[in-house]
Amino acid sequence: MRKGMIWAAGIGALVAAAAAISEMERVGGRRVELPEQAEAALRKAPEAERRMLRRRLEAPFRRLMEDPAMRARLEGLTPDAARAEGARLARAGIWMLPDSLLIDRAMLMEEIERRVSTEDCAAIAAGTPTPGAMERGLATFDADELTRWFSLAMDASLRAVRQDPAAEVISDAEAQRLLRAASRRMPPRLRAMIYEPAAAAAATPADLCQIDRHLNRFVIERGGPEGTGLMRWLMRRMAG
C-alpha cells in the first residue's frame, strides 16, 4: 500500500460532507434541506433547542450556496455533476484550511474513527471509505459536532473554488522531519509500515486505523505550525 494512501487521513470524509451541497435547495429565503445526519441529530436534541440548532446547522450551507464564485461554478450542473464537483472541491481544499480548522478536523476525525468499526475506520483512514462508512461515522455526531464538520467542509470547498490557501505548504525536507517525529510515537511495527513497502503491504485494518489515529493525535498535540504543517503537506500531495 502506498504511503500516500496510508496517510490519506480521511479525505473521503470531507468529500462526503461537501457532496451534500448538491442535495440542498438553492437558498433565497427558503429553509435549507439538511443532510439526513443533521436531521437525525436535531431529532435527538431537546425540542426547545431545535430551532436554534437548525439555524446553526444551516449557516455553513447558506454561506456556501450564497457565495457568487460557488454559484457560478455549479451553475447549470445536474445534481450528480454538482455532487462530483463538490467532492472534488472539498478534496482539493483540505490543505488550504487555516491551522485552527485543520486541528478541529483532526479532533473530529479522531472521534469518528473512535466510534466506527475497525473496518470503517481503516477505509476512512486510507481515503477510500466503503459505502456508508462516513455516514455511519457522522451519524454518531451531535448537532454541535455536525456544525463544526459542515463548517470546515464548506470552508475547504470555498477556498478551493477561490484558490485561497490560508498558508504556504512546508518543504519536503521539513515534512520528512515532522513525519519522523510523528512516527517515533508509534510502535516499531506500525512505523515500519510507513517506510517499508513489504510492511505496508501486510497492514491490517486495525493497523491503518492506529496509524491514522497517531497522525491525528500528532496534529492535535503539536498544533501549528508543525502538526498542521505536516497535515497540510500530506493533504496537498493527495490533492495532486
What does this entry look like structurally?
70% of the residues lie in helices and 0% in strands. By secondary structure, the chain is mainly α. It contains 15 helices and no strands. Mean pLDDT is 83; it is low at 1-29.
Topology diagram in text:
Blueprint: H1 3-6, H2 11-18, H3 36-44, H4 50-65, H5 68-74, H6 79-93, H7 99-115, H8 118-125, H9 133-138, H10 143-162, H11 172-183, H12 188-195, H13 197-201, H14 205-222, H15 226-239
Structural class: mainly alpha
**Sheet with most strands:** none
User: Which range does the strand content fall in?
Assistant: under 5%
Rg (C-alpha, Å): 18 Å
| Morphology call | globular
Residue windows where pLDDT falls under 50 for at least 5 positions: 1-29
- Give the fraction of residues assigned to helices: 55-70%
What is the helix tally? 15
Could you state the order of secondary-structure elements as H and E? HHHHHHHHHHHHHHH
How many β strands by DSSP?
0
* Overall residue-averaged pLDDT value: 83
Termini gap: 18 Å
Write out key terms for the chains shown:
240 residues; 15 helices; disordered N terminus
Quick structural summary:
By secondary structure, the protein is mostly helical.
